Amino acid sequence: MPTAKKLKNKSGKKSGAAVKSEKKARATSSAQSGPSTIDTLLDEKRSFKPKAAFAKAANAKKEVYAQARRNPEQFWGKLAEELVWNKKWRQVCSFKAPDARWFVGGKLNITESCLDRHVETSRRNKAALIWEGEPGDKQTLTYYALYRQVNKFANVLKKLGINKGDRVAIYLPMIPELMITALACARIGAIHSVVFGGFSPESLRDRIVDLEAKLLITADGGYRRGQIIPLKHDADVALAECPSIEHVVIVKRGNFLLRIKDGRDHWYHRLMQEADNFCPPVYVDSEHPLFILYTSGTTGKPKGIMHSCGGYLTGVYATTKYVFDLKDDDVFWCTADIGWVTGHSYLVYGPTANGATQVMYEGSPDWPDRDRFWQIVEDNGVSIFYTAPTAIRAFMKWGEEWPNRHDLSTLRLLGTVGEPINPEAWIWYHEVIGKGNCPIVDTWWQTETGHILITPLPGVTTTRPGSATQPFPGIEAKILDDDGREVKKGGGYLAITKPWPGMLRGIWGDRERFVETYWSKWPGIYFPGDGARVDQQGYFWILGRVDDVINTAGHRISTMEVESALVEHESVVEAAVVGIPHDLKGECLAAFVTLGGSLEFDDKTAKRLTEFVARKIGAIAKPERIIHVPDLPKTRSGKIMRRLLRDIATGKILGDTTTLADPDILARIKKQYEED
Ligand code: PRX
Fold it and tell me: Of 35, 51, 39, which is closest to residue 1 (Cα–Cα)?
């Protein structure tokens, strides 16, 4: 088996063959499915066996796969027994597609697993959260301190009239209060919905309106790359059109200017001063909703993905324990924002259910310098580090000198999530950050799946750069074709063929869309919307989205959502958005637009349109390129052929053009694309 070291020749340079295979594999990072991609991924032959010492001490042992296969319900049931229940379940799983119920009849309050049980042991004084703000301010909360804060805020929620089942929107920077307020909602059975702080006022408004949330928790501001993000100001814009909101709680992050609306707005610290220390946990049914998190779908409107308590907690607890091999003396750092599902599952819930010490950081990795992350790893002795391929590619671009300035020897395990990782970035992560000593877990999952489903188990799995390897024990995944036949060779659609504990329980307020999006492709089988292939060893290679969703910098953006934003601009008549490969982000957005009347298009127009999208949705949705075209390629029935635009943007030979209403349009668009 070649190892990373063997790939280098004496001068430390990679061998010609390795470079060639990396370059080839890199071409796959854009995650476009199709035969050429599949062939290229097949070229990746390097593999990394677990080291004996790691394997010996690992939480996961090889037998776990066989145990789970023999009796999946017993496997999940045993893991659920490691959590705190108020009333035990009668049945592990009941499934009548598309509806699953897990731990049927069980009652619990999940904060008892995440907090109460730790404060009853010596973990009481253990650091639960080591937080660092972007300007350099720091705070450490022990499990006892976190428990107290959560209890107090749960009492605040009650005082503000929040009851079991009410929706609470949270729009905060990455500060401890984000974790505290989310857990406090869970304490009283309220349903939280965290809205990423980078989303625009309009996006916040749409989510609050859809949720009919009664309460909004926000902050006067937050820091990002040295700038202040004016969250309360943005929230006020949103709140002008949110009649369901009765109260707003504001965390004081800095000394930022803001307006207070008497009777509606309250300072967090004042409410906390008056709150009682203990709030009895509200026991809820295992299936009671825990949170709703919005994610992009193929139509313009984001979907409110619903997760329940018992199954979700079991899933995140089990995957944190085995995939991250968490031990009591580890320092775990998941760099994701709690605004995304990764922050929910591997910051708020999974690690706390395991009693872990974790790091949380507010800001940007390059502030004030490009070694901020490595400084944090060194300062806190981080041992497990989990981030996105986009970040790794940015680190690669910035150069080895940044991590090399720091002592990273405490690291023992590395993880990635959010998009396919190109083998070149995988190898760089392994060598430069992990110094060849740390296993890498490339974890595939989604907002909808709640927890990791396809992943190596460190200490057990031989890893291969670019492959998420195999389904987690108890998970059944297959590659299917359109008709639901299993594809044994070549690519197809990824399918999850058995229910799993953390699976989404629906889309908030839209049963039809839930059934249509995930359960209508094949009867009784979950369709995640990703293309993939499985190789002869049963390893899965995820190829990326097969629908109109772009995975840019690890975040899902719907092309339709960006198109609807663009056409709202007064000068845009039509817009078509496609994903194109991007060195750092994996994929980025290219928008083809037609303008009204005789409007001129120049750099300023492009900038105005880009800013407009940022205002409408958020900066993450900004198109990288805006191309002004005379018309869009359409079929005779008027359907925009985005596929052809993608071919133009990626320099591919144009696919089938016979259905085009105006065959000449492509040449004109191509010319415009090359000139712009
Ligand atoms: O396309 C897959 C990609 O991210 C999508 C899910 O995005 P989201 O719901 O925002 O959740 C991201 C964090 C869990 C998937 O449909 N994806 C996620 N992880 C991987 C991945 N693609 C390839 N490899 C991964 N490890």
Answer: 51
